[in-house]
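B., you asked whether I could sanity-check this one before it goes into the benchmark set. Here's the sequence:
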Amino acid sequence: MADSENPTASTNGTGSANPTASANGTDSGISRRRLLGTAGATGLALGAVGATAGYATASSNSSESAAALTSLGSGRVMFHGKHQPGITTPMQARGHLIAFDLAPGAGRKEAAALMRRWSATARRLMAGEAPGGSDTDIARDAGPSSLTLTFGFGHSFFSRTGLEKQRPTALDPLPDFFSDHLDKARSNGDLWVQIGADDALVAFNALRAVQRDAGEAARVRWQMNGFNRSPGATSHPMTSRNLMGQIDGTDNPKPSDHDFDQRIFVPASGDPSWMAGGSYAVVRRIRMLLDDWEKLTTKAQEDVIGRRKSDGAPLTGGTETTKPDLEKTGADGNLVIPINAHARISRPDQNGGAAMVRRPFSYHDGIGHDGVPDAGLLFVCWQADPLRGFVPVQRKLDRGDALSDFIRHESSGLFAVPGGAAEGEYVGQALLEAH
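And here's what the prediction gave me:
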């Protein structure tokens, strides 16, 4: 899982925060979470030591004056735009994935009301404001922390809402794969929400707000929690590592690529029209068999992946970004990169140019009575068409990837993620209010 089609990559490989705009309060110029005085607004930043490092502090008389936030807390991603946030946003340190099923009797009207509520809540939270209605103050002292909320619709959503004619063909169920050991209770769903933030409390606050907003309209089907390396944890920006210790995500497509949009987003002329600017998310819970993996020598692990563990460079030499020489042989006459190495099988030029943006989270759900960790990857990938993105790559991996002996796909979902909401609109409005 360390190469270009590896399901463990970051968008930019740095894991850095993405303060795309300054935080703007809405109440007398100061939001409830006291965002005036952020590092971006004042030019000041707190250090990593001292009683006030990393958060804003309220005065004893409860005034709205506050210390400056660190750059981590002040990072803000915009809710409104052509595309939903959380797709090209740099990977965040904390994440939650949650799927809902509409409640019995709930249909299109209830779904539209729910998407209005979720969109309004997302806009406020991403700006560093308190959610509407009751607030438990979980994230009271924090800034936006690069929070994103992303919403999608599953295959079953369209029959539940009477919108079958609007269901995209690209949303047809994924085929069965040899490596699948899927738990249906933790797969699919009518509605899906991806939450990411660089602060755990900010992320959890968003998760609780989304669940509260669901009210009587939808019920939780499954929910998963994940994490990544925290921004600033390394001496310089670098590609992250996964729980197998491999540098992971070397050749993930980048927004600067000339064909990025056509590979990742549905064009304005696409079908159906309500998906213009949207994308399709494949979500897989991939358990890593870490006990088996850790029994291998470093050399054996590198042969499975086809890259050096130390720096991510291909076994044929160079640096992390050097193109692997798939024909190179060693002194023994054997291929330097084994025929079944993950790096060889997952290369885009070995899969008809199939491309997808992988934005996963690692997960650890405890250690069983047998001492085996339940840990691995919450794999999320984005593409304009999963039949040209995820499916051909996964089929190829199914047919002989050496990594398959050390992972197990335990849940799966595919969701249509519409384009971003314009000012004054909510996510999915073009679908839910279509005549």
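One thing to flag: Residues 74-232+240-432 form one domain. Otherwise nothing jumped out at me.
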